[in-house]
Design brief:
- This protein has two helices and three strands; from the N terminus they run αββαβ.
- It is α+β, with helices and mostly antiparallel strands.
- Strands 1-2-3 form a three-stranded mixed beta sheet.
- It has one domain: GMP Synthetase, Chain A, domain 3.
- The chain is globular and about 45 Å long.
Length: 82
């Protein structure tokens, strides 16, 4: 049996992080966030549910989603809504 941990691609890691954000946003705010595209530098997400028409969605996108992603992926240049 190998003691080596599995290696995950940056996209797989990013997908997992966004899934955690989605669960939190869904539970506490009734919104959703899903990964649409990732080219290595730019992350595109879709905000849905209660976030879709919310006037605070730019704050959620840039303050919360982008802020969290950049903590774990400092090389990402920006997060934008698709």
């Amino acid at each position: 049996m190998s003691d080596k941990l599995p290696e995950f691609s940056a996209r797989e890691q990013l997908t997992g992080l966004i899934e955690q954000l989605d669960a939190y946003i869904g539970h506490y705010h009734g919104g959703t966030v899903e990964l649409v595209d990732f080219d290595g530098k730019v992350v595109k997400v879709h905000l849905g549910g209660a976030c879709e028409d919310c006037p605070l969605s730019p704050t959620t996108l840039h303050g919360w989603v982008e802020g969290t992603i950049r903590q774990f992926f400092p090389d990402i240049e920006r997060v934008e809504e698709a």
